[in-house]
Write a structure and sequence with these properties.
14 strands, 283 residues, 19% strand, globular, three-stranded antiparallel beta sheet, alpha+beta
Length: 283
């Protein structure tokens, strides 16, 4: 299950962001020099097909399956979907009973035609279980950002500073007016295949947009200000885990967290229709 991981030499790079477009409350700064030892990382997020192989071999039951529901984006639900609870300040998220990795929009949906799409509705604990089975691990936040930058120095995106260079879409995010109008200029409403779009300089696909990706670190907004600068792994404890990369629901009007320095978090047992993961490994 580790075939195809990209070896990266590590070394020193500038991590974080202190520009005006960042979110100070997310702890994107300070801009800091971090040094990493060599490691390997997956060029793509774990797909439905790969996760199905894991479940077939282990019988793993995800957190969403145990709970009996997960949060799905309202705009992907069928017109006859029963009305259910919305998620607080994000009413476009709906509690959908029967939503899980096999049924992303509820019991009537399927991933049969999405085997090459990233697996979603996975909690951090589900990602850890997969990693243990596959002999890999989740990347640290620093490893994730180093890999996502693709060798570029302080660029906004994995390919440079322009979101659509030459008018070409390079990631799967929301176009139009969120959350009511998506023009689908990039070709996708929900998730896209894990290898959609051109890879970055290190050969990684979709490190901007598509799905949020779990990292190994506990989330904190101040720890890294004076924290370790060599192979940092975040604070020793916390209540939420780091997620990186943004998703197909990100839009500049409210969440431009598809920039490589942007960060967010979620609790380890949480699952939604836009969270997945990619794996890493020591060299």
């Amino acid at each position: 299950m580790t075939v195809g991981l990209v070896p990266l030499e590590g070394g020193r790079f500038l991590m974080g962001n202190e520009t005006a477009e960042g979110f100070p409350s997310d702890g994107e700064g300070p801009l800091r020099a971090v040094t990493l030892t060599p490691f390997r990382i997956d060029p793509v997020a774990v797909s439905n097909a790969r996760f199905a192989a894991f479940v077939g071999a282990t019988g793993h039951v995800t957190e969403a399956e145990r709970y009996g529901w997960s949060f799905a984006f309202a705009g992907l639900l069928p017109p006859d979907a029963p009305p259910t609870r919305a998620a607080g300040e994000a009413p476009w998220w709906r509690q959908v009973f029967g939503a899980d990795w096999r049924h992303p929009e509820g019991p009537a949906s399927s991933v049969v035609d999405r085997e090459d799409h990233p697996v979603v509705h996975l909690a951090f604990t589900d990602a850890l279980a997969y990693c243990e089975w596959a002999g890999v691990r989740l990347p640290t936040e620093a490893e994730w950002e180093y890999a996502a930058r693709g060798g570029l120095r302080q660029a906004r995106f994995p390919w440079g500073d322009d979101l659509t260079p030459g008018g070409q879409h390079r990631c799967n995010i929301w176009q139009g007016r969120f959350p009511g109008v998506n023009t689908l200029d990039d070709g996708f409403l929900g998730t896209a295949p894990v290898d959609a779009y051109e890879p970055n300089g290190f050969g990684l696909h979709n490190v901007s947009g598509n799905v949020w990706e779990w990292c190994a670190d506990w989330f904190d907004t101040t720890f890294h200000k004076n924290g370790p600068r060599h192979d940092p792994s975040g604070p020793p404890s916390g209540s939420a885990k780091v997620i990186r990369g943004g998703s197909y629901l990100c839009h500049s009007s409210y969440c431009n967290r598809y920039r490589v320095a942007a960060r967010s978090s979620n609790t380890p047992d949480s699952s939604t229709g836009n969270m997945g993961f990619r794996v890493a490994q020591d060299i």
